[in-house]
């Protein structure tokens, strides 16, 4: 055991003369190095905390202000208008000279002035960031007022910001007006209801707007001014943590490895490099040294969700779960063939090197010991219903070795599974992407710890992926980390020619230790019950991965259309062809331009999109008419997306009104109906955030495969997609296999819809070319006829003159 190995460094013997201590120099060296590393880490965190706390100013600017004030005093000027004298009079005169009091008063005044200027800068930046007119301007066209605004934002944003530098300057999420929300809601459901249904909904909505809404809205206004964000805490609690059904499939999501590449087929080596890259990322995250994400390179995004990425676990409760976040945890828990291992990530005050991690993981892979009773499927407790897991945790894991081992899992940096299967995308195997997705989303239902912030999965062929818990953060946060990890693994760390991690083997490392369990028969029955529930859920979900290589963002942009709007309209067309009807459609949009912002819903099924889809299925429409309807629908979708991003969405406002109504015990038929409507088509785009990490033009095979999630409704589809480079779009389609949906069929419908919409532009382009050629020939014909006519006239006039 690791503890026993380290214990031999400290020994003592009792003799008649007293107690003799024997200390190992090696152990003392490691203790010393660990202490140095710890204090260095605290110093860096303290320094970065100060830099973040005074941003957009700098600590050196304080010295400049102090020097300026002191210089003015020695020049017998008083820039404080008497405030320095007032401060001096309030200071105790005992044991201090008058000059010292004057200097101290000047420094205190300068510090107050400096801090006031910082607050003024932050307030100014917050006011500037509250302007969102730039997002509604046509792509590629920027007004002079927006150019001026952008220059001012750059000027007040300071230099070299850290990850959390902009948090105090971000505006609050605004509360939309009741009139706007109700109006937009009614517009969104108009294409889904017949005339009588719509009129009835209109009456219910207007009654709510007149009777109950004003009172509920006042409480939301109050919360918006009191809390940092009027949505996020309720969203986390009521949408995620209070759910009592399994989070596996229903809530957790997954992210895949690069689509085409595997840098090494050695499982231990790939795990070593990736874990080391994660430790490097965590160190920069703890220090706040990551560069904050900014729209257009100017508008900062909220970074609050990054805080709970590591050392975090969801803790089950009877009525509601909670998120537990720890700091300074230095171990990792690894699952392999039914055994749990604890692995220390530090040696001599530093991170383990990739080669050392590979050595540790190889020890685990070579371990032939058997699982303890109840250990094999223990993690299925996190995959089943939440209440049985909460009760079992209280009864069987609250003391003894079970508590110690469970604490090790829940406080670990993250959870790692060394999977004994091989997965990945293989163009020659049609089902390879589907099996890869299912494995990442649920695995065997007992080989992922679904409560951890994320589980890293390393397959035996070297492919990797992530299963992430959803309550603590949204997919772009995991995506940011994953982009950095893959780039570090491939381009910075690398592998030897034999596929091993670079570096030497360290024979002084203690091997990973097994976690110990004492699981009684009654608890094993609970584990088995949770496993069966999870297995039924996993067997019911179906996946299809669609790698669309026919065209991508490059061609779509040449058509002067938003790629996201293009894909959303293709999804509407595909769904109509699949089901023969329209449905309420969810597209996730982010609200991270506001403090603690998370997501908002874009209702992609609109009056304009349904008109376009119906035109595509009606042979009476010409290509020109269809294209005109497409452009109108795409513009509508872009405008809705912009409204959602700027805090003027529909669903988060209605959700919060619903929560207030429940807290006040107010029954609202309108809100009850709105919140019970099923999202039969749930969609989300996985954004690429750090394009500078990999040059896709130079390395075209180093492209991400994106990720996905389970279907939201039992009779619906879940669709995630990622737009990579100029010529690739990858779709991840999920559905409940027990219903009439078919993810493979829907995937083919998406492909055909994309091609059919492209055909509109091709047809129009061909017609334009034909028309231009016709005009060109006509002009040439006219010019030729004019020349002939001119020549004949000249000849005629010459003959007549002769």
TrEMBL record:
<keyword id="KW-0276">Fatty acid metabolism</keyword>
<dbReference type="InterPro" id="IPR023213">
    <property type="entry name" value="CAT-like_dom_sf"/>
</dbReference>
<keyword id="KW-0443">Lipid metabolism</keyword>
<dbReference type="InterPro" id="IPR042231">
    <property type="entry name" value="Cho/carn_acyl_trans_2"/>
</dbReference>
<dbReference type="GO" id="GO:0005741">
    <property type="term" value="C:mitochondrial outer membrane"/>
</dbReference>
<keyword id="KW-0012">Acyltransferase</keyword>
<feature type="transmembrane region" description="Helical">
    <location>
        <begin position="60"/>
        <end position="77"/>
    </location>
</feature>
<dbReference type="GO" id="GO:0009617">
    <property type="term" value="P:response to bacterium"/>
</dbReference>
<keyword id="KW-1000">Mitochondrion outer membrane</keyword>
<dbReference type="InterPro" id="IPR032476">
    <property type="entry name" value="CPT_N"/>
</dbReference>
<protein>
    <recommendedName>
        <fullName>Carnitine O-palmitoyltransferase 1, muscle isoform</fullName>
        <ecNumber>2.3.1.21</ecNumber>
    </recommendedName>
</protein>
<feature type="domain" description="Choline/carnitine acyltransferase">
    <location>
        <begin position="173"/>
        <end position="752"/>
    </location>
</feature>
<keyword id="KW-0812">Transmembrane</keyword>
<dbReference type="InterPro" id="IPR039551">
    <property type="entry name" value="Cho/carn_acyl_trans"/>
</dbReference>
<dbReference type="GO" id="GO:0006635">
    <property type="term" value="P:fatty acid beta-oxidation"/>
</dbReference>
<keyword id="KW-0813">Transport</keyword>
<feature type="transmembrane region" description="Helical">
    <location>
        <begin position="98"/>
        <end position="121"/>
    </location>
</feature>
<feature type="active site" description="Proton acceptor">
    <location>
        <position position="470"/>
    </location>
</feature>
<dbReference type="GO" id="GO:0097009">
    <property type="term" value="P:energy homeostasis"/>
</dbReference>
<keyword id="KW-0808">Transferase</keyword>
<dbReference type="GO" id="GO:0004095">
    <property type="term" value="F:carnitine O-palmitoyltransferase activity"/>
</dbReference>
<dbReference type="GO" id="GO:0061959">
    <property type="term" value="P:response to (R)-carnitine"/>
</dbReference>
<keyword id="KW-1133">Transmembrane helix</keyword>
<dbReference type="GO" id="GO:0009437">
    <property type="term" value="P:carnitine metabolic process"/>
</dbReference>
<dbReference type="Pfam" id="PF16484">
    <property type="entry name" value="CPT_N"/>
</dbReference>
<comment type="function">
    <text>Catalyzes the transfer of the acyl group of long-chain fatty acid-CoA conjugates onto carnitine, an essential step for the mitochondrial uptake of long-chain fatty acids and their subsequent beta-oxidation in the mitochondrion.</text>
</comment>
<keyword id="KW-0472">Membrane</keyword>
<comment type="similarity">
    <text>Belongs to the carnitine/choline acetyltransferase family.</text>
</comment>
<keyword id="KW-0496">Mitochondrion</keyword>
<dbReference type="Pfam" id="PF00755">
    <property type="entry name" value="Carn_acyltransf"/>
</dbReference>
<feature type="domain" description="Carnitine O-palmitoyltransferase N-terminal">
    <location>
        <begin position="1"/>
        <end position="47"/>
    </location>
</feature>
<dbReference type="InterPro" id="IPR000542">
    <property type="entry name" value="Carn_acyl_trans"/>
</dbReference>
<dbReference type="GO" id="GO:0015909">
    <property type="term" value="P:long-chain fatty acid transport"/>
</dbReference>
<comment type="pathway">
    <text>Lipid metabolism; fatty acid beta-oxidation.</text>
</comment>
């Amino acid at each position: 055991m690791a503890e026993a190995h380290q214990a031999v460094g400290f020994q003592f013997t009792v003799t008649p003369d007293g107690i003799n201590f024997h200390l190992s120099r090696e152990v003392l060296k490691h203790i010393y190095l660990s202490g140095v590393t710890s204090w260095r880490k605290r110093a860096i965190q303290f320094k970065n905390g100060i830099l973040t706390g005074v941003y957009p100013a700098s600590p050196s600017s304080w010295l400049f202000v102090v020097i300026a004030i002191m210089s003015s005093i020695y020049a017998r000027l008083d820039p404080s208008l008497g405030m320095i004298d007032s401060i001096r009079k309030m200071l105790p005169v005992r044991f201090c000279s008058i000059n010292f009091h004057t200097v101290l008063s000047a420094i205190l005044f300068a510090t107050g002035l400096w801090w006031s200027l910082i607050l003024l800068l932050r307030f100014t930046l917050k006011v500037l960031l509250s302007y969102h007119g730039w997002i509604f301007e046509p792509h590629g066209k920027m007004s002079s007022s927006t150019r001026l605004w952008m220059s001012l934002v750059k000027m007040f944003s300071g230099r070299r910001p850290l990850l959390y530098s902009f948090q105090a300057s971000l505006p609050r999420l605004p509360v939309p007006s009741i009139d706007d929300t109700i109006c937009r809601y009614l517009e969104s459901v108009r294409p889904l209801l017949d005339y009588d249904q719509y009129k009835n909904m209109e009456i219910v909505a207007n009654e709510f707007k007149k009777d109950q809404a004003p009172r509920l809205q006042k409480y939301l206004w109050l919360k918006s001014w009191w809390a940092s964000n009027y949505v996020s805490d309720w969203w986390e609690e009521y949408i995620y943590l209070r759910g009592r059904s399994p989070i596996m499939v229903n809530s957790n999501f997954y992210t895949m490895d690069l689509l085409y590449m595997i840098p090494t087929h050695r499982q231990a080596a790939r795990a070593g490099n990736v874990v080391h890259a994660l430790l490097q990322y965590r160190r920069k995250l703890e220090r706040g040294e990551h560069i904050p994400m900014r729209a257009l390179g100017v508008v900062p995004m909220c970074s609050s969700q990054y805080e709970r990425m590591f050392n975090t676990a969801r803790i089950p409760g009877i009525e509601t779960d909670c998120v537990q976040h720890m700091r300074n945890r230095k171990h990792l828990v690894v699952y392999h063939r039914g055994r749990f291992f604890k692995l220390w990530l530090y040696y001599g005050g530093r991170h383990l090197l990739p080669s050392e991690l590979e050595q540790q993981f190889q020890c685990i892979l070579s371990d032939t010991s058997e699982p303890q009773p109840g250990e094999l499927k223990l993690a299925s407790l996190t995959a089943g219903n939440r209440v049985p897991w909460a009760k079992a945790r209280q009864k069987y894991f609250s003391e003894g070795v079970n508590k110690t081992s469970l604490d090790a899992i829940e406080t670990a940096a993250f959870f790692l599974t060394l999977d004994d299967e091989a997965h990945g995308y293989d163009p020659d195997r049609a089902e390879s992407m589907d099996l890869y997705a299912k494995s990442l989303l649920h695995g065997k239902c007992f080989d992922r710890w679904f409560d951890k912030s994320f589980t890293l999965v390393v397959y035996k062929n070297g492919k990797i992926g992530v299963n992430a818990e959803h309550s603590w953060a949204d997919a772009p946060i995991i995506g940011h980390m994953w982009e950095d990890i893959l780039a570090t693994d491939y381009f910075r760390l690398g592998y030897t020619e034999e596929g091993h991690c670079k570096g030497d083997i360290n024979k002084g490392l203690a091997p990973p230790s097994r976690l110990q369990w004492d699981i009684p028969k009654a608890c094993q029955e609970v584990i088995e019950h949770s496993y069966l529930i999870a297995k039924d859920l996993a067997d019911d979900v179906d996946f299809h991965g669609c790698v669309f290589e026919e065209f991508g963002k490059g061609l779509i942009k040449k058509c002067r259309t938003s790629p996201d709007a293009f894909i959303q309209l293709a999804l509407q067309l595909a769904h109509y062809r699949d089901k023969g009807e329209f449905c309420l459609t969810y597209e996730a949009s982010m609200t991270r331009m506001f403090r603690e912002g998370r997501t908002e819903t874009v209702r992609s099924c609109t009056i304009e999109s349904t008109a376009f889809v119906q035109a595509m299925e009606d042979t009476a429409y010409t290509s020109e008419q269809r294209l005109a309807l497409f452009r109108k629908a795409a513009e509508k979708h872009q405008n809705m997306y912009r409204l959602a991003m700027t805090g003027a969405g529909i669903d988060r406002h209605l959700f919060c009104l619903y929560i207030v109504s429940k807290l006040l015990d107010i029954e609202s038929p309108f809100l009850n109906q709105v919140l019970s409507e099923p999202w039969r088509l749930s969609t989300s785009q996985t954004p690429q955030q750090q394009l500078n990490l990999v040059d896709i033009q130079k390395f075209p095979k180093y492209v991400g495969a994106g990720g996905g999630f389970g279907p939201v409704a039992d009779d619906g589809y879940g669709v995630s997609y990622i737009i990579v480079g100029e010529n690739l779009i990858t779709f991840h389609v999920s559905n409940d296999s027990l219903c009439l949906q078919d993810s493979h069929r829907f995937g083919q419908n998406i492909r055909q819809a994309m091609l059919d919409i492209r055909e509109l532009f091709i047809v129009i382009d061909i017609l334009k070319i034909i028309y231009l050629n016709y005009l060109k020939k006509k002009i040439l014909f006219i010019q030729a006829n004019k020349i002939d006519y001119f020549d004949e006239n000249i000849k005629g006039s010459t003959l007549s003159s002769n």
